[in-house]
Amino acid sequence: MGSVVLSLDAELGWGFHDMETPPPQRVEAGRRGWSVMLELLSEFEIPATWGVVGHLMLDACDGRHADHPAPEGWFERERTEWRDREELRYGPDLVSDLLAADVDHEFASHSFSHVLFGDPDTDRELAVAELERSREIAAEWGETIDSFIYPRNSVGHRDVLAEQGLTAYRGRTPNHHGARAVFDSTVRDRSFLVEPCVDQHGLVNVPASLFLFGFEGPARTVAESIWTDPMVTVARRGIDEAARSDGLLHLWLHPNNLTHERDDRRMRTILSYLDRKRAETDLTVETMSDVADRIDVSAGVDGTVSPANSQPMSGY
Questions:
Q1: Could you give the count of Cα atoms lying within 13 Å of 126 in the half-sphere of its Cβ?
Q2: Percent of the chain at pLDDT above 70?
């Protein structure tokens, strides 16, 4: 019996606050995309794993976070350019909507302030602080955290995740992205299914299969004008393969990827197709924690970094 996992990096402005020139359309689309995705997932009754940046759950802060061991300047944009942009820094209303949804979504962590765990400058103290703060805020909301989605898929400090009591994380994809993904799927008939595994820390690595917004810009416009949405085609092929097998397809995106109505249509088409295949076959939809729960932690621990953690992965 195959399954599909959908995970989202829910971050609002925090996904871009450290960038010299953040992409304006995506920065402004975070709230819109969050609401659209909740509505679509509710319509098709599809649960997803939402990796939420912990800072979004605050109502206010001083913008300095003096007790946080972040490098100098890390919270600079919050104190300056975005000082009056509370809608980019806070999102308790959106988190409340997520937790109140009829669908049983998984509440997961995307760190406290979108620190890159795999960056050489991110030391253990910083990784611990990011996770501890996220867990503290979640507890104040009556929530616990089992799964972790690494900011920008920068995997690191997995031992810290294990020590903090988490059980699963989204690992790097062994597949290509963007135009290469379209080529691999449609021309080479390459499989995008992935194999969850237990790493040497006892964590379940649920590797990503496909970033749903890796084929954009003029290339997408041309492709849609003469053919169809390429990412819909690749996603459908992956869903079909999962339905025929015992494999896992792990799709992912950011709410801020939904910058236009055509992005909404992409997600509606994919989710509608997933819902239909689920009804017609034995295909199931799982969250990351669901996958971790069914993996036998006593088996398959190889003491090495999974190959799914060693491949380049684009998308932020």
A1: 17
A2: 93
Say how far apart CA 108 and CA 219 lie, in whole Å: 33
Collapsing DSSP states into helix, strand and coil, what is residue 10?
strand
Confidence check: pLDDT of 222 > 90? no
Among the listed residues 212, 175, 264, the one whose alpha carbon sits nearest the alpha carbon of residue 8: 212
Q: What is the DSSP letter of 309?
A: G
Which helix (H) or strand (E) covers residue 264, if one does?
helix 261-280
Distance CA 245, CA 28 (A): 40
Kindly report, residue by residue over 52-105, the tens digit of the pLDDT. Answer: 999 999 999 999 999 999 999 999 999 999 999 999 999 999 999 999 999 999
pLDDT beyond 70 at 303? no
- The amino acid sitting at 56 is L
For residues 235 and 242, is the Cβ–Cβ distance under 8 A?
Answer: no
Cβ 280 vs Cβ 242: under 8 Å: no
Q: Measuring CA to CA, which residue among 6, 10, 5, 53 is closest to residue 255?
A: 10
Q: How many degrees, rounded to 5, is the angle at CA 69 between CA 65 and CA 71?
A: 95
pLDDT > 90 in the chain, percent: 83
Give buried/exposed letters for 96-116 (b at 16+ CB in 10 A, else e): eebeebeeebbbbbbbbbbbb
CA distances 89 to 10, 13, 106, 114, 307, Å, are 12, 6, 22, 12, 35
What tens digit of pLDDT does each residue of 234-280 get?
Answer: 999 999 999 999 999 999 999 999 999 999 999 999 999 999 999 99
Q: Please name every residue paired with 10 in a beta bridge, in sequence order, or none if there are none.
A: 52
Between 258 and 310, name the one with better pLDDT: 258
As a residue count, the chain comes to 316
**Domains assigned to the chain:** 3-309 (3.20.20.370)
Closest by CA position to 295, among listed 153, 194, 197, 180:
197
Mention every residue, 6+ apart, whose C-beta is less than 8 A from residue 203.
Answer: 158, 161, 162, 166, 167, 168, 169
